Amino acid sequence: MAPKWQKLADRLASQIRRGDLTPGQQLPHIRDLVAAGEGSKTTVHAAYKALEAEGLVTSSRGHGTVVRPQLPIKQLRIVGDQVVLREFTRDDVDAVLAIIGDDTVTTWLSFDSRDRAQAVAMIDGTIERARHEPRTEFYLGVTNHDDNRVLGFVRIGLSGVQAGKLGYAIAAAEWGRGYATDAARTLIGYAFTELGLHRISAAIGPENAASIAMMEKLGFTREGVLRDHVFTNGSWRDSVLYSLLEHEWQPQSGGGGR
Ligand SMILES: CC(C)(COP(=O)(O)OP(=O)(O)OC[C@H]1O[C@@H](n2cnc3c(N)ncnc32)[C@H](O)[C@@H]1OP(=O)(O)O)[C@@H](O)C(=O)NCCC(=O)NCCS
User: Fold this and answer.
1) Taking CB atoms and a 6 Å cutoff, what residues make up the pocket around ligand 1?
2) Residue 86: beta bridge partners?
3) Which end of the chain has fewer surrounding CB within 10 Å, N or C?
């Protein structure tokens, strides 16, 4: 379980990221939070220090702890037929943990199941990298049209010249509803049309039948096998490499899809 200072820091961080606490606003005095039952002086102090280390607040004598202006981030929201792709927030931790903390899902990924702290770190990393200029990672939450809850993720990381690497996962309870196909199709369309990519590739475990079916549905071409490509679940695993080139992409049919 996360220590008390961490929980307080997480809560304040999401209030800052959501804009409930605005730039220039002073955080409550430590003694007021202590009086409000948020923890000891040491706990609140540690939470404020963590926020400072994250670059969310500054502390100075005379001004207390003040929310720092956040770098503007272009909040992407890309609407597909079934899904909406959106930026992650700290509020998505539980939903993300339900995906990357579940062996049923991660057995097919290039990393082992992760715990809550790692889910927080993953989200924070995506939020931070989304601010990089130029942006080289598009790591987005997958939601459906009716609910803002994250039920999966899709990612394209730029690498090389006009090239990107695709990855995705959907919470096991939501498999088989077409979400992954639509999410990948939607981000691929964005990458070819808005980001000007020429090539998108994906490296998939040879036994990952669902993911391979998706590649074929989306019009990807099998290129070959990457031997011992990832070390996951205690052993080396090959990957099958797939790619899709810009001129092969057919947006109206999802590149050969349904
Ligand atoms: C792969 C994954 C993302 C697919 O998510 P999903 O939302 O269930 O996918 P979709 O509903 O869009 O369907 C994918 C296609 O795979 C097919 N499929 C699903 N399971 C299958 C299986 N065991 N064997 C063959 N095909 C399968 C589906 O029938 C569907 O094709 P169809 O529309 O022609 O019927 C999901 O299974 C997952 O998260 N797996 C673990 C993580 C992962 O593998 N990520 C990709 C790493 S490369």
Assistant:
1) 105, 108-109, 168-170, 175-181, 202, 204, 208-211, 213-214, 217, 258
2) 77, 141
3) N
Distance between Cα 255 and ligand 1 center (Å): 17
Under CATH, domain 77-253 is a member of which superfamily? Gcn5-related N-acetyltransferase (GNAT) (3.40.630.30)
Answer CATH for 4-67 from 1.10.10.10, 1.10.3720.10, 3.30.420.40, 2.40.30.10: 1.10.10.10
Pick from 13-27, 170-184, 234-248: least confident: 13-27
pLDDT for residue 72: 62
What's the rounded Cα separation, in Å, for the pair 165 and 243?
A: 9
In the reported structure, the alpha carbon of residue 176 is separated from the centroid of ligand 1 by a whole-number distance in angstroms of: 6
Residue 8, token pair as written in the block: 């307080």
The residues near 183 (Cβ < 8 Å, ≥ 6 apart) are 80, 83, 85, 142, 152, 154, 168, 170
Higher per-residue confidence, 232 vs 200: 200
Q: Nearest C-alpha to atom 21 of ligand 1 is from which residue? A: 210
68-77 per-position pLDDT tens digit: 987 667 789 9
Neighbouring C-alpha atoms within 13 Å toward the C-beta of 214:
26
